[in-house]
């Protein structure tokens, strides 16, 4: 009886909202064709894949492709680098985006603020290969802008492309420059939705601007912050291939501190040509990322139900 009632309720909902469901059909089809059907390719991770024989006739080798990746210490280094960079990107990006959003909102709707918003989001539309080309002009040992400036003031120059310890902060700063402005726009949209009467009531009680920010704005943004964090967490095992490879390339001097999973997969595919090994690494990356999202979502749901994605 209960199952029949649920079916009838679902059918009524389908009929009542038929036009909304029709609008969703293109997005559903797009997801099925480009996100779910390609997942059949995961089988390559368990095969000695031969393009001529195809997916269904290649030799099955079990977990041998995974053994190739996990047999040495290299996988620990690139996993650490991947997680480290993404955690730094998420933490610093969230803090700076929030700070920019709050500051610009407090400044009001002047022409200066609108110009600043346009300038902030501009780096988001510049591709990483273009940034990589500009970085050469800044970081080259002899003719780079930074080293020429250091020489002018009598300071010692820095050989950026052989000094691996300097690149983690460079990558974090460049990521902030490119993404923080766009992230601030998202938080500004959330701030606009906060009830203005709450601020008016707080000011009538004698609250300062700083108190309004910490007692009203930031607490009201909690759900948005958690939601964006959960979405970012899904990519914490993503290696930012376009960013890091555009800036560093195949520089062996910097491998230990800048190699991430995506770059390792890209290099392995070019050097070994084994699709099975690269797919095994990509599968490891995806499974760990999925587990992290599910775990973080459960924790967020227990702490605050409104903050969970599902």
UniProtKB/TrEMBL annotation:
Membrane topology: Multi-pass membrane protein
PROSITE patterns named in the record: ABC_TM1
Keywords assigned: Cell membrane, Membrane, Transmembrane, Transmembrane helix, Transport
Record carries keyword Cell membrane: yes
The family this protein is said to belong to: Belongs to the binding-protein-dependent transport system permease family.
BP GO annotations: transmembrane transport
Transmembrane segments: 20-46, 83-104, 125-146, 166-192, 213-237, 281-300
Domain of life, source organism: Bacteria
Annotated compartments: Cell membrane
Domain ABC transmembrane type-1: 79-296
Name the record gives this protein: Sugar ABC transporter permease
Family annotation (SUPFAM superfamilies): MetI-like (SSF161098)
GO cellular component: plasma membrane
InterPro entries from the UniProt entry: MetI-like, MetI-like_sf, UgpAE/MalFG_permease
Keyword DNA-binding: no
Organism from which the protein derives: Paenibacillus nasutitermitis
A Pfam family matched in the record: BPD_transp_1
């Amino acid at each position: 009886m209960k199952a029949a009632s649920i079916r009838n309720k679902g059918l009524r909902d389908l009929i009542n909202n038929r036009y909304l469901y029709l609008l969703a059909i293109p997005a559903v089809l797009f997801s099925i064709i480009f996100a779910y059907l390609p997942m059949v390719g995961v089988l390559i991770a368990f095969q000695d894949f031969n393009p001529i024989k195809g997916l269904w006739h290649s030799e099955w080798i079990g977990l041998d492709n995974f053994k190739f990746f996990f047999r040495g210490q290299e996988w620990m280094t690139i996993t650490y680098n991947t997680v480290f960079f993404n955690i730094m990107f998420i933490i610093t990006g969230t803090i700076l985006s929030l700070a920019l959003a709050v500051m610009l909102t407090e400044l009001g709707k002047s022409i200066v603020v609108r110009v600043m918003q346009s300038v902030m989001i501009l780096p988001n539309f510049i591709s990483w290969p273009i940034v990589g080309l500009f970085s050469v002009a800044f970081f080259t040992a002899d003719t780079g802008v930074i080293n020429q400036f250091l020489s002018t003031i009598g300071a010692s120059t820095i050989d950026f492309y052989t000094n691996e310890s300097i690149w983690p902060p460079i990558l974090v700063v460049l990521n902030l420059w490119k993404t923080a402005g766009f992230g601030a726009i998202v938080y500004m949209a959330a701030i606009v939705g906060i009830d203005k009467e709450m601020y008016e009531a707080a000011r009538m009680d004698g609250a300062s601007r700083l108190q309004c920010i910490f007692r009203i704005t930031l607490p009201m943004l909690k759900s948005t912050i958690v939601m964006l964090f959960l979405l970012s967490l899904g990519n914490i095992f993503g290696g930012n291939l376009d960013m890091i490879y555009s800036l560093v390339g195949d520089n062996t001097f910097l491998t230990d501190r800048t190699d991430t999973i995506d770059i390792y997969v890209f290099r392995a595919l070019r050097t070994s040509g084994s699709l099975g090994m690269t797919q095994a690494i990509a599968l490891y990356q995806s499974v760990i990322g999925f587990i992290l999202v599910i775990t973080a979502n459960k924790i967020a749901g227990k702490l605050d139900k409104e903050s969970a994605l599902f």
